[in-house]
Design a protein that fits this description.
Blueprint lengths: L2 E8 L5 H10 L10 E7 L10 E8 L2 H8 L2 H6 L1 H6 L5 E8 L2 E5 L10 E5 L11
Antiparallel strand pairs: 1-3, 1-4, 2-3, 5-6
């Protein structure tokens, strides 16, 4: 079953640039990993209560694929700056989810129209028909 892992990281205002730069320097490392599907770094918007929190969103074909990333040399390399210079964030929480339904807007291709793609998943990761 597909999974989403979100690392919610509190980053002090004065260190936000450094935080974003660290992610920019390791772009492409996840794409090499078996089972990797998507990555997004989400910057907090104005109006949040408390200290701003970034969200590191990753999507994997299975929990095992995500665990493979955590135990890989690529993970160690991507977090090298943290071990050498210390973490930029002041707090972090890891949130994990199983994907049970998805909907994406299709991108235009040639003269084709737009439409949505929706998939509901049953127990055990069985794919349903797109709606």
């Amino acid at each position: 079953m597909e999974v989403v892992q979100m690392n919610v990281i509190t980053v002090p205002e004065e260190r936000r640039g450094e935080f974003e730069e660290r992610f920019a320097k390791r772009a492409g490392m996840l794409a090499m990993m078996p089972g990797f599907e998507a990555f997004e770094l989400l910057r907090p918007t104005a109006g949040q209560d408390g200290e701003p929190r970034y969200v590191v969103y990753t999507r994997w074909e299975s929990k095992e694929a995500f665990e493979g990333w955590l135990n890989s040399p690529a993970f160690q390399r991507s977090h090298k700056a943290q071990s050498e210079k210390g973490p930029v964030g002041s707090a972090s929480e890891l949130w994990g989810f199983e994907v049970i339904e998805s909907e994406y807007k299709r991108r235009k291709r040639g003269k084709g129209g737009e439409g949505g793609k929706r998939r509901k998943r049953g127990k055990g990761g069985e794919g349903g028909e797109p709606g």
